[in-house]
């Protein structure tokens, strides 16, 4: 289905949005769930060997969003860092809750072996409004570069600048949903004055690696852990996932730094982005959360084996 046949209700087809169009889009957004209740309160009451720190704050209209991270309370200067991020796209729910679940239930398993830096919800406004963008119609996951226009991305970059120890691993938790085709890709095409075709949404879990450091064995270790929880997506009839060529079962690669993706925000050796499909008939919301946790455990387990 081409967007030309079903134009987005904001803007003029073929013409990028002006400020008035962006304000019209913003006026249609509404709060649907609570960042304070779902994310901040669990962080503040979490019982684990992790220290809670506020690394920034976003102000959108009358709403204030403090930004929080968790880090190993017994931080060791002679140990590398594993970075875990979620909620870059706030609407991708299991990324946020999978990060929180791992922090609460499993982070202590790694105490003394490595330093953990966990950022559960990078885009709190996006979480509350179930959105891919921030209020300025900017995608934080295309904005991880110097002088970023997205406050969400800039705040994380600033936090990472305070970490002296090498970041050896980064796993970024995401979802691919049916609303990518029904809302977010059409909105993107309208905003940029282009056109889009729907792509096949993979049914199952898959990974996006970095084309400059594919690390096939690392990606396989993550998928092996996830496969115990939920199914891995098969390629389409063109041997692609989400429009990209398959490089190994369940894995496609992107140039993460060039695209400004969160996965490219560090120089970590082992990098991957998880993608679960919460709209699958073969998976539940709980399975999606557990799959995200399994992915983190698979990634950290591989890292520790390589360090041994």
From TrEMBL:
Cited Pfam families: Peptidase_M14 (PF00246)
Catalytic center residues: 275 (proton donor/acceptor)
The Peptidase M14 domain, residue ranges: 31-307
SUPFAM superfamilies found in the cross-reference section: Zn-dependent exopeptidases
Family according to the record: Belongs to the peptidase M14 family.
Protein name: M14 family metallocarboxypeptidase
Native species: Bowmanella denitrificans
Phylogenetic placement of the source organism: Bacteria, Pseudomonadati, Pseudomonadota, Gammaproteobacteria, Alteromonadales
């Amino acid at each position: 289905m081409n967007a030309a046949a079903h134009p987005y209700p904001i803007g003029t087809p073929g013409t990028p949005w002006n400020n008035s169009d962006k304000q019209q889009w913003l006026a249609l957004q509404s709060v649907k769930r609570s960042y304070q209740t779902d994310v901040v309160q669990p962080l503040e009451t979490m019982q684990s060997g992790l220290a809670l720190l506020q690394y920034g704050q976003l102000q959108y209209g009358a709403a204030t969003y403090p930004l929080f991270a968790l880090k190993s309370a017994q931080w060791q200067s002679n140990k590398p860092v594993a970075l875990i991020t979620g909620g870059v796209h706030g609407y991708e729910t299991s990324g946020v809750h999978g990060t929180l679940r791992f922090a609460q239930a499993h982070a202590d398993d790694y105490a003394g072996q490595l330093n953990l830096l966990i950022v559960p919800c990078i885009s709190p406004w996006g979480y509350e409004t179930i959105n891919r963008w921030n209020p300025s119609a900017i995608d934080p996951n295309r904005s991880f570069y110097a002088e970023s226009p997205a406050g969400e991305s800039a705040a994380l970059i600033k936090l990472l600048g305070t970490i002296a120890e090498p970041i050896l691993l980064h796993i970024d938790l995401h979802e691919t949903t049916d609303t990518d085709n029904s809302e977010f890709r059409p909105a993107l095409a309208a905003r940029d004055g282009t056109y889009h075709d729907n792509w096949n949404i993979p049914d199952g879990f898959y990974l996006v690696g970095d084309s400059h450091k594919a690390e096939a064995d690392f990606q396989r270790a993550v998928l092996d852990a996830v496969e115990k929880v939920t199914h891995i997506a098969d390629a389409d009839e063109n041997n692609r996932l989400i429009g990209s060529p398959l490089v190994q079962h369940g894995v496609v690669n992107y140039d993460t730094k060039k695209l400004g993706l969160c996965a490219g925000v560090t120089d970590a050796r082992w990098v991957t982005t998880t993608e679960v499909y919460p709209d699958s008939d073969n998976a539940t919301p709980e399975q999606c959360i557990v799959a995200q946790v399994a992915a983190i455990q698979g990634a950290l387990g591989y890292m520790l084996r390589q360090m041994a």
